[in-house]
């Protein structure tokens, strides 16, 4: 098991940072019958899922951890069969309806509505480790966790609206995503927002040290800090890098001079950034296109590629060009969000960058003479 | 605001305090008056409700139906189709046809029924008031098409015919957020009602009632900050009130946090970074505020307010920024990345501030 999962705190009290959020969740868990629908948002790797799991544990006790995998099959009105996977406990169901792609609307209309409308079987879930009153109230409600709601189409989101209201007495939704603007306003109005900020560098260092201790690893402060910074305040990434560094080092010592592990695709993108800064020509553009394809084929999301590439390009550019390049990155990223052929927009961005940069070089040259 | 019985104890406040009758509806005076009139005369045109989330559209439609027929009747009389139902045109046509053709039976509900006449569990809460009341029992059925702006234009076009074909026995209530998403020929068949977002003072009365009913003590100033942050959305206000209540002690900061609004100090840091006219500190500041996880749209709104009365921008700069922010918000709603959009806005702001500085020096 990866360290990220192995050392995931399982109760609200075990969560190491954002004490005020944990406290707030604790108070909400005290009165499960009046729990509103919740909407967790915050940067990726900030610990949203962990907090949701811990909250469920606080509401339902240990039986919320008795998980099993489940799967539903249903037929769309156009006759296609779609499968959707979910994780269930006696009290809750967790799924990512975005997985169904264009059919996400039917997941909400069929599967979710059915889940929301059926009541929990009370007797079978009697809960020993909670005082009976709270357990009773908790047993009456069922929680549906929807992950990555930012991937849901507008149609699918609209389908949630009345479902959330009609079955509010028995079913509470917990929505979770990185990008809150992608949730339509009527849905945001139906939820209590819980913002989960990225942990600070110090907080990440704290978590890294705790994990290192459990794994009998000697972790130097300097290297812990380096990891935290390199992770961009993404705790998941920091932990993955820690584990990778340990494998790289081959021992239990991680000193200050340990090299930072970085992922292949990130190296690949910085290489691409260098390529197109060094030479602007049709053949380079073709080569860049190959690289972009390669990244997409390996399931790196187009937006991630574009953001990383922009970051790399900008850091080596003259200040006078930075804003212009940024402007175009924002333009093409919007196109990616709107359209379907991601490669077109990535390629267009690269071409645009080449044009801007070439012109800049030419102008400099002209000035010199 | 009727009784709270046991079965309602587990319902979030927004649902528990959903207006049961038209007189419970806050603020939407004109709409309510017109509909009250319809209740007394029993005559009703097709209706189109539009307005922002949480302004009472769905509630008013349901309350209206409740007032037209006795609880035992109105379920047979009203068909609610919303976005959680499949709404392909053939499905809608069939459903409506079927519904319209069902006989409603004898309309001979006694105006006053024995108090112990034994209505079903879920009707109990409205009973004590309702049984005092006479129902107009108008001879038509109502189809509520909620969230109509998500019905495709094709299906809407087909709806025109359906509405006409069934208009003798059915009335339609179309509900949507954006009236422009309903095609004109459809909209023109309905009496249109715009629901306004609620002003603080009328939300306050309702919230006070709810707070009193729930034994929730909340000071006036906290109530005011809840109302301010709710921005005219009654549902948000009620949810915030309940959450604040569940959290026990509440202060202004906690209320702001519930609404996800960045504290002034964080915004100030970002603004400062814009003034130094260097790319790196600006980028760092944007990175930091994004890492805090504030919703991009909210940040844009806060920035817009700041820019509009900032002395270090000239008219031109303000105008350019306003346009850029509008564009960024539009793109965010389309699903574009919040960070990149925010960066471009901040980049432009930096340029504009610098431009004014240079102009002043000359
Ligand atoms: N005018 C109002 N008076 C009293 N309560 C209201 C009013 N408007 C909204 N509410 C409260 O907000 C909740 C949601 O209202 P409603 O479902 O009618 O909103 P809506 O206008 O249909 O919103 P949406 O566009 O998101 O569907 C209600 O349950 C009620 O508690
Ligand atoms: Mg509604």
UniProtKB/TrEMBL annotation, chain A:
> What is an example of a GO molecular function annotated in this UniProt entry?
DNA clamp loader activity
Query: Where would one find the signal peptide in this protein?
Result: none
In terms of Pfam families, this protein maps to: DNA_pol3_delta2 (PF13177), RCF1-5-like_lid (PF21960), RFC_C (PF22534)
Q: Which Gene Ontology BP terms does the record give?
A: DNA repair; DNA strand elongation involved in DNA replication
A GO cellular component entry from the record: nucleus
Q: Which UniProt keywords apply?
A: DNA replication, Nucleus
Q: Is Nucleus one of the keywords?
A: yes
- The main location is nucleus
Q: Which subcellular locations apply to this protein?
A: Nucleus
What family does the entry list?
Belongs to the activator 1 small subunits family.
Enumerate the PANTHER family for this protein: REPLICATION FACTOR C / DNA POLYMERASE III GAMMA-TAU SUBUNIT, REPLICATION FACTOR C SUBUNIT 3
Q: What is this protein called?
A: AAA+ ATPase domain-containing protein
- Source organism: Cylindrotheca closterium
From TrEMBL, chain B:
UniProt name for this protein:
AAA+ ATPase domain-containing protein
Q: Name one GO molecular function term.
A: ATP hydrolysis activity
Residue ranges of every copy of the AAA+ ATPase domain listed in the record? 43-201
Residue ranges spanning the membrane: these are none
CDD domains named among the record's database cross-references: AAA, HLD_clamp_RFC
Q: Where is this region: Disordered?
A: 113-133
Question: Which family is this sequence assigned to?
Answer: Belongs to the activator 1 small subunits family.
Question: So which domain of life are we looking at?
Answer: Eukaryota
Q: Name one GO biological process term.
A: DNA-templated DNA replication
InterPro entries named among the record's database cross-references: AAA+_ATPase, ATPase_AAA_core, DNA_pol3_clamp-load_cplx_C, DNA_Rep/Repair_Clamp_Loader, P-loop_NTPase, Rep_factorC_C, RFC_lid
- What are the alphabetically sorted keywords of the record? ATP-binding, DNA replication, Nucleotide-binding
Which Pfam families does the UniProt record give? AAA (PF00004), RCF1-5-like_lid (PF21960), Rep_fac_C (PF08542)
A single GO cellular-component term from the record reads:
nucleus
Q: Which organism is it from?
A: Cylindrotheca closterium
PANTHER family to which the protein is assigned, alphabetical: REPLICATION FACTOR C / DNA POLYMERASE III GAMMA-TAU SUBUNIT (PTHR11669), REPLICATION FACTOR C SUBUNIT 4 (PTHR11669:SF20)
């Amino acid at each position: 098991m990866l360290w990220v999962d192995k050392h995931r705190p399982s109760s609200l009290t075990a969560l190491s940072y954002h004490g005020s959020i944990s406290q707030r969740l604790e108070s909400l868990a005290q009165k499960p019958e009046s729990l509103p629908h919740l909407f967790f948002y915050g940067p990726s790797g900030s610990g949203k899922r962990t907090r949701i799991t811990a909250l469920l544990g606080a509401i339902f006790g240990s039986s919320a951890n008795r998980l099993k995998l489940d799967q539903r099959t249903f037929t769309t009105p156009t006759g296609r069969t779609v499968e959707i996977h979910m994780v269930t406990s006696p009290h809750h169901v967790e799924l990512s309806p975005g997985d169904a792609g264009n059919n996400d609307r039917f997941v909400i209309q069929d599967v979710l509505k059915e889940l929301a409308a059926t009541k929990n079987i009370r007797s079978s879930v009697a809960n020993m480790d909670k005082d009976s009153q709270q357990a009773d109230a908790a047993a009456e409600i069922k929680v549906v966790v929807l992950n990555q709601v930012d991937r849901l189409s507008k149609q699918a989101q609209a389908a949630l609206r009345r479902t959330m209201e009609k079955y509010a007495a028995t079913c509470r939704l917990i929505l979770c995503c990185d990008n809150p603007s992608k949730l339509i306003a009527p849905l945001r109005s139906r939820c209590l927002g819980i913002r989960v900020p990225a942990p600070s560098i110090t907080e990440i260092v704290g978590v890294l040290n705790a994990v290192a201790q459990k794994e009998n690893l000697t972790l130097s402060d300097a290297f812990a800090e380096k990891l935290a910074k390199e992770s961009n305040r993404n705790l998941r990434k920091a932990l993955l890098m820690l584990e990778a560094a340990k494998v790289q080092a081959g021992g239990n010592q991680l000193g200050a001079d340990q090299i930072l592990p970085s992922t292949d695709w990130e190296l690949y993108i910085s290489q691409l950034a260098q390529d197109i800064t060094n030479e602007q020509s049709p053949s380079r553009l073709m080569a860049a296109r190959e690289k972009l394809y390669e990244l997409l084929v390996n399931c790196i999301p187009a937006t991630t590629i574009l953001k990383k590439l922009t970051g790399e390009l900008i850091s080596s550019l003259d200040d006078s060009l930075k804003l212009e390049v940024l402007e175009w990155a924002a333009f093409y990223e919007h196109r990616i969000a709107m359209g379907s052929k991601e490669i077109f927009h990535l390629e267009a961005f690269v071409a645009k960058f080449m044009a801007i940069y070439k012109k800049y070089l030419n102008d400099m040259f002209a000035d010199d003479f | 605001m009727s009784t709270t019985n046991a079965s309602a104890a587990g319902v979030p406040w927004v649902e528990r305090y959903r207006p049961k009758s038209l007189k419970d509806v806050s603020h939407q005076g004109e709409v309510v008056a017109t509909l009250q009139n319809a209740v007394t005369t029993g005559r009703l045109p097709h209706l189109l409700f539009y307005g922002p989330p949480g302004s009472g559209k769905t509630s008013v439609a349901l309350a209206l139906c409740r007032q037209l027929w006795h609880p035992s009747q109105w379920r047979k009389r009203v068909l609610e189709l919303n976005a959680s139902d499949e709404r392909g045109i053939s499905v809608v046509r069939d459903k409506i046809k079927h519904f319209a053709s069902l006989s409603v039976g004898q309309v001979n509900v006694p105006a006053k029924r024995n108090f112990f006449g034994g209505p079903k569990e879920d009707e109990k809460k409205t009973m004590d008031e309702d049984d005092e009341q006479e129902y107009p029992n108008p001879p038509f059925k109502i189809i509520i098409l909620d969230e109509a702006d998500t019905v495709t234009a094709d299906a809407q076009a087909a709806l025109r015919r359906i509405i006409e074909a069934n208009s003798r026995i059915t009335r339609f209530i179309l509900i949507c957020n954006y009236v422009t998403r309903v095609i004109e020929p459809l909209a023109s068949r309905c009496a249109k009602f715009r629901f306004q977002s609620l002003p603080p003072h009328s939300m306050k009365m309702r919230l006070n009632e709810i707070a009193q009913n729930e034994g929730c003590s909340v000071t006036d100033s906290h109530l005011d900050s809840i109302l301010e942050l709710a921005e005219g959305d009654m549902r948000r206000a009620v949810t915030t009130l309940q959450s604040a209540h569940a959290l026990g002690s509440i202060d202004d900061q906690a209320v702001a946090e519930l609404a996800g609004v960045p504290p002034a100090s964080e915004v100030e840091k970002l603004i400062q970074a814009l003034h130094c006219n260097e790319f790196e500190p600006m980028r760092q500041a944007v990175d930091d505020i994004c890492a805090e996880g504030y919703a991009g749209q909210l940040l844009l709104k806060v920035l817009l307010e700041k820019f509009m009365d900032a002395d270090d921008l000239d008219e031109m700069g303000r105008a350019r920024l306003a346009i850029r922010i509008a564009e960024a918000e539009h793109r965010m709603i389309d699903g574009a990345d919040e960070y990149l959009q925010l960066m471009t806005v901040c980049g432009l702001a930096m340029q504009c501030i610098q431009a004014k500085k240079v102009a002043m020096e000359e």
